[in-house]
Amino acid sequence: MTLRELTILLADWSDYLVIPVAALSLVTIQRNSYFKILSGYLFILAPLTIATTITADYQIPNYYLYHLIGLVELVFTFLLYRSLGLKKSWDVVFGIVLTAYLADSIYLFTNGREEINSLGLSLCMLFMIALGFNFIWKLYQEEKVEYLGFYPYFYISGGLTVFASGAFFGYLLIARMSDEIIPAENFYYSWLIISGFTYIKFILIVLGIFVERKYAK
Asked: Quick one: DSSP state of residue 72?
């Protein structure tokens, strides 16, 4: 199996994995607003990621779908942390990142550049990483959670943060490729990184859902 074939295979599986995870999220949707947002995030993400797979198989341009996926990741990740008591000062940061992301997407569209908005996506991932570390720091300061193994938000936040960390470097590599002549294999390596961390994200989200069902009071 070539690197290209392996990349496509793993990327396709990571895209389809969102379907069972979205369905599973329904078991916690009545818990609170956090799990309602999580379920909404997964059910909106699912058709977009599946559409990228189908259009790629038929060699149909699908760059605009990645623009939408990045927007979904950014907005819903912020809403998830907002429902956990994120300080209002983060609203300003979110507004700046959202504006920059939309500006990057609009620039690519208006200039007819059919490419992934990798710089905008990198910025989104960096913001998600910052939110994740802020959440962990908040838990450390408040000391309200005795054992993180029984805390579902820790798993889900960990999944989103780990994914954002891997995707951040993946999108940075893709951004560099658009400006320089780099071997095609580097693109596949980048996509393998993003796909691999997508698996980790969904596994940790599933763990968070199971912990919520089993240990939540």
From this structure: H
Phi, psi of 129 (to 5 degrees): -65, -45
- Which residues, other chains included, contact 43 with Cβ-Cβ below 8 Å and sequence gap of 6+? 22, 25
Rounded Cα distance, 167 and 68, in Å: 16
| Span 146-161, average pLDDT | 93
Q: Is the pLDDT of residue 124 over 70?
A: yes
The overall pTM is greater than 0.70: yes
Q: Which residue has the tokens 């007819």?
A: 112
CA atoms within 13 A on the CB side of 93: 16
Whose CA is closest to 136, among 166, 158, 160? 158
**First and final C-alpha spacing in the chain:** 48
